[in-house]
Prior knowledge:
elongated; Helix-turn-helix domain-containing protein; Endonuclease, Chain A; DNA binding; single chain; DUF5753; 13% strand
Amino acid sequence: MKVEMWIRALKAARAGAEVSQEGLATLIRWSPSTVAAIETGRRRPTMEFAVAADEALSTGGLLASLLDAADKERGPSWFVPWRGYEQQATRLRAFEACLVPGLLQTESYARAVISAGGLNAPAIVDELVAVRMERQQLLRRDEPPHCVFVLDEAALHRPVGGPVVLDEQLGRLLELAESPFLRLHVIPLAVGEHVGLGGGFVLAELPDGDRALYLENAARGHVVDDPEMVNLIDRKWDSLLGEALSTGATVDLVRKLKVTP
């Protein structure tokens, strides 16, 4: 469901309750300009707004439910299925060869990656960055999935966004490495060739014991649940983890590369 459909639902609910934009603003104690911006699509509605509008218009939670559905479909259509697996996962294992994984990126780093080459319009960049930041909320849950990330050391040297952005990103990695639910490993450059040079991947383990795999190429990502392919990537994972530094040695390396304290 697109946000445009949610806006139509809001307008219909408001019309049905015979409440004007200004009247709704008064009822929910939001500014009339904010309500107008949301109804014209200039500002994205928040869940707080949707819940307040539901209460004011007596819609029984409809607007909040529709907004939740719309939020789950943000970003490229091919990525929607993976977001569902990612949110359900009890364990995530991810490898990246040249970039810091999306779940670990700072906003500035993510913006630099998504805006590279000028292929996306500014509004699309803003939307994709917002989606990436929202995905990271799963790491802040009271009981987040257990995550293991393996990076090639090259990702720690590439100045994505410039030296300042990279330094901030290295600081974020050090913060995340302190979480008891997250392990970070780096494959040192001295290793040379390894089985991950062909590209990154994410393995998700689900509550029912099933596993799903996310692979990305230059055009789009793919969700794979074929057991043979998942087993192949599982073997690659074991090989990569065997080449990687320990968590302690990884943190030491990141600290050495970080310029500012």
